[in-house]
TrEMBL record:
Presence of keyword Nuclease: no
Keyword Transit peptide recorded: no
Membrane topology designation: Multi-pass membrane protein
Signal peptide interval: none
Gene3D superfamilies: Rhodopsin 7-helix transmembrane proteins
Family as reported in the entry's similarity comment: Belongs to the G-protein coupled receptor 1 family.
Subcellular location: Cell membrane; Cell surface; Endosome
Domain (G-protein coupled receptors family 1 profile) ranges: 63-308
Stated name of the protein: Lysophosphatidic acid receptor 2a
Chain segments carrying region Disordered: 362-381
Gene Ontology molecular function, alphabetical: lysophosphatidic acid receptor activity
Length: 381
C-alpha cells in the first residue's frame, strides 16, 4: 500500500508540474513537445523552396499593387464594389508580405525565434486570411443588395465604405492577436497543435469552423443571386440598352464568383488540415501535408489579378495603361514629357499607347462629380 500511495503521489506531483502555467519555455520546447521535426541545417530543398516562395511573394505584392493603383486611377472604378475589391487586393498584398516573413523565419531559423516573433509570424497569416474572408463577405452582401434590384452599383456613400473597410481590418487584427494574448497552449500542453505548436487546438477548431461556415454562407448567397438572375433573365426586355446593362451586371457577378471560387478552393484544404489537427492532434498527421496546403493558399493571392485581367476589359485596359506609362517613363532619357492630365486611363497619350498594343479604340470617359459622397458615372465592365 505504501508503494502504491507513493506512486500515486508522484504521478499527482508530475501531473501538477505538467499543467502549471510556466511561460518561460521557448519555441524549441513546444516543437519537441508535439514532436514536430525542424532541420538544424539548410538543405538544397529548403533553399529552393525559399527562393521560389520569395519569388511568388514578390509577384503577389506587385500584382495586387497594380490592382489597387488601377482602381484608384480609373474613375470608372470609383464605386463601393471596386473599393471593396481594392481592399481585397490590399489583403492579398498583405498576405504576400506575411508569407515572405514566414519564409524568412522558417527552416533552421524557426527554433531561434523568440515566442513574440513566432506569434507575430502566425498573426500576420491570420490577419491576411481574416481580412480576405471579411472582404468577400462584404462583397457578397453588397452584390446581394444590388443584384436583387438589378442595379450595377449600390448607393452606399464613401464614408460608409471607408468605415466598413476600417471595421474589416480591426476585426482581422483582433483575430490575429487572439492566440498570442490568451488563447494558446502555454498553460495546457495537452492542447498544443502539431501544425502550430504554440496554438491551442481549440482555437484552431474555432477558427477553421468559423471560416468554413462563412464560405458556406457566401456560396449559398451567390447561388441564390444566380438563381434570381436566371429567373429575371427570362422576363428581361429585348431593348438593347436594357440588355447591355443586364449583361454588365451578369459579367461582374461572374468575375466576383470566380474570385470567391478560387479563394474557397485554395483555402479549404488548409482549413480542413487545421480542423483535423484541432480534433485529432498527432493522430491527424497534419504535418505531412501542411506545407502543400500553405503553398496552395499562397497561390490564391496571385490568382485575383489574373481573374481581373481575363474577365474585366476595363481593368485590363487600365493595367496596360499603367504598365505602358511605366515603360514609357523608364524609356525617356533626355526628352521632356508633354503635360498630360491623369484624370482617367484613356487620355490622348494613353489612347496612342493602347492602339499600338491592341489596335482598339477606347471610349473617352465623361466628366464625373467629385463630391465626397457621390460616385462616378458607371462605364462598361
Amino acid at each position: 500500500m505504501d508503494g502504491e500511495s507513493s506512486r500515486d503521489v508522484g504521478m499527482a506531483m508530475e501531473s501538477s508540474m505538467w499543467h502549471t502555467c510556466n511561460r518561460s519555455h521557448n519555441v524549441s520546447f513546444f516543437y519537441h513537445l508535439v514532436e514536430k521535426h525542424v532541420s538544424d541545417h539548410w538543405r538544397t530543398r529548403d533553399v529552393l523552396v525559399m527562393v521560389l516562395g520569395l519569388t511568388v511573394c514578390v509577384i503577389v505584392v506587385l500584382a495586387n499593387l497594380l490592382v489597387m493603383v488601377a482602381i484608384f486611377m480609373n474613375r470608372r472604378f470609383h464605386f463601393p464594389i471596386y473599393y471593396l475589391l481594392a481592399n481585397m487586393a490590399a489583403a492579398d498584398l498583405f498576405a504576400g508580405i506575411a508569407y515572405a516573413n514566414l519564409i524568412l523565419n522558417t527552416g533552421p531559423w524557426t527554433l531561434e525565434l523568440t515566442k513574440q516573433k513566432w506569434y507575430i509570424r502566425g498573426a500576420l497569416i491570420d490577419i491576411s486570411l481574416t481580412a480576405s474572408v471579411a472582404n468577400l463577405l462584404a462583397v457578397a452582401v453588397e452584390r446581394h443588395q444590388t443584384i436583387i434590384t438589378m442595379q450595377l452599383h449600390s448607393n452606399m456613400s464613401k464614408r460608409r465604405v471607408v468605415l466598413l473597410i476600417i471595421c474589416i481590418w480591426a476585426v482581422s487584427i483582433i483575430m490575429g492577436l487572439v492566440p498570442s494574448t490568451f488563447w494558446n497552449c502555454e498553460c495546457d500542453f495537452d492542447d498544443c497543435s502539431t501544425v502550430a505548436p504554440l496554438y491551442s487546438r481549440r482555437f484552431l477548431i474555432f477558427w477553421a469552423v468559423l471560416n468554413l461556415l462563412t464560405f458556406f454562407i457566401m456560396v449559398a448567397m451567390y447561388t441564390r443571386i444566380f438563381v434570381y438572375v436566371r429567373y429575371k433573365n427570362k422576363y428581361t426586355s429585348q431593348h438593347t440598352s436594357e440588355m447591355q446593362s443586364h449583361q454588365t451586371v451578369v459579367n461582374l457577378m461572374k468575375t466576383i464568383s470566380m474570385v470567391l471560387g478560387a479563394f474557397v478552393i485554395c483555402w479549404t484544404p488548409g482549413l480542413l488540415t487545421l480542423l483535423l489537427d484541432g480534433l485529432l492532434g498527432k493522430a491527424s498527421h497534419a504535418n505531412t501535408y501542411e506545407k502543400f496546403c500553405l503553398v496552395i493558399a499562397e497561390c490564391n493571392s496571385m490568382v485575383n489579378p489574373i481573374i481581373y485581367s481575363l474577365r474585366d476589359d476595363e481593368m485590363r485596359q487600365t493595367f496596360k495603361w499603367i504598365l505602358c506609362c511605366i515603360c514609357r517613363k523608364c524609356g525617356r532619357q533626355q526628352r521632356e514629357p508633354s503635360p498630360v492630365e491623369i484624370d482617367s486611363p484613356v487620355s490622348k497619350e494613353t489612347l496612342t499607347c493602347i492602339l499600338k498594343s491592341e489596335e482598339k479604340v477606347v471610349r473617352k470617359p465623361e466628366d464625373t462629380n467629385d463630391k465626397e459622397d457621390s460616385w462616378a458615372e458607371p462605364g462598361v465592365v
